[in-house]
Write a structure and sequence with these properties.
It is found in: Cytoplasm. The chain is of the alpha/beta class. It has twelve helices and 13 strands. The relative contact order is 0.14.
């Protein structure tokens, strides 16, 4: 079986990563890559690493052409997918949105954080949140998947075993997360310029970040109760990677955290629970769809400390989208995603 695929918005970093992964997927045929600004330009002229692998040119988005594909990925600014997805879904196309248009169930909350009214509330209610480690069976049946954000993926997976097991107090969770500059996208911004980001390290969004409601929604689903979360993101001077340091106060300090995590993720192909005492590094997941997790109980106290790393462009975006596509279309979940991380 060959899957015909289209990418709407192929010139950003997540679009590039989708191109790289889908070009190497053994059961995918890339048919369409859209970009209004680069229309007519060969993909390899914009991204020379794809020369010899992607023999397509960018084209303007044409709904009729997109409707002829089995799956359409939206790697577009927030607000784009919700305008185009309804017609595609009604024509039987599977849709995966890498933006935030369908991630948050409460559309009032969504509008508050994204500054616009939602264009298709009915489809938003149907959309399935695409975190396979939590909702795999729902993803298999979905017509539309909301691909999780990069920070939300690391934070949710790190906290998941603690919340599902009722092992921590839910009112004082803390997520201290760091991201490389590619998380801000390809459009130049002053704070991501080399002279600004290099040799520098700073927090941002400390009083409120748009990923906060998405993270809280996922944690509350896992805990089956309200969750109090302090989330602080940081920009670090590297290109790729997220490191999330997570804190939760244990209800029973005697619990074997290592065993809890190993048991919860034993059958997950893209979650690697490291041996006791480990400290995962972002470079260990560069270019891969893997999340590596280590769990600690500092000084034998009542605090659970979880360390989680991922590549923000792969498991935090494009790789997870391909993982979701595999599930939606009945393919082996790991297909096209088993590449080894790049070192150094």
């Amino acid at each position: 079986m060959t899957i015909s695929a289209a990418i709407v918005g192929g010139t950003g970093y997540t679009g590039l990563e989708l191109l790289r992964l889908l070009a190497g997927h053994p059961q995918v045929s890339l048919e369409v890559i859209t970009s209004r600004a680069q229309a007519g330009q060969p993909v390899s002229a914009v991204y020379p690493n794809l020369r010899g692998h992607v023999d397509l040119a960018f084209s303007p988005p044409d709904p009729a052409v997109l409707a002829g594909c089995d799956v359409v990925f939206f790697a577009t600014p927030n607000g784009t997918a919700m305008e185009m997805a309804p017609a595609l879904v009604e024509q039987g196309v599977r849709v995966i949105d890498l933006g935030a248009d369908f991630r948050i169930r409460d559309l009032g909350v969504w509008s508050h954080w994204y500054g616009m009214d939602h264009a298709c509330p009915a489809l938003a209610a149907e959309a399935v949140y695409g975190l396979p480690e939590y909702g795999r069976e729902a993803i298999r049946q979905a017509r539309l998947v909301a691909n999780p954000g990069c920070y939300p993926t690391a934070v949710q997976l790190g906290f998941l075993p603690l919340l599902e097991g009722g092992l921590v107090a839910t009112d004082t969770l803390i997520a201290d997360a760091k991201s490389g500059a590619s998380g801000a996208g390809r459009v130049p911004k002053p704070h991501t310029l080399l002279c600004e980001a290099g040799e520098n390290f700073h927090a941002y969004g400390a009083s409120g970040h748009r990923h906060l409601p998405e993270i809280r929604q996922g944690l509350e689903r896992a805990a089956a109760q309200p969750v109090g979360l302090t989330f602080v993101p940081h920009l670090v001077p590297m290109i790729r990677g997220i490191h999330a340091t997570l804190y939760g106060r244990l209800r029973d300090p005697a619990v074997d955290l290592q065993a809890v995590y190993e048991r919860r993720f034993a059958d997950e192909p893209f979650v690697d629970v490291l041996p006791p005492g480990s400290h995962p590094e972002t470079r260990s997941v560069r270019g891969s769809n893997m999340v590596r997790i280590a769990v600690h109980r500092p000084e034998g106290g009542d605090m659970a400390l979880v360390l989680a790393v991922e590549d923000n462009l792969v498991k935090g975006a494009a790789g997870q989208a391909v993982q979701n596509m595999n599930l939606m279309l009945g393919l082996r979940e790991t297909l096209g995603l088993q590449g080894i991380s790049v070192l150094p």
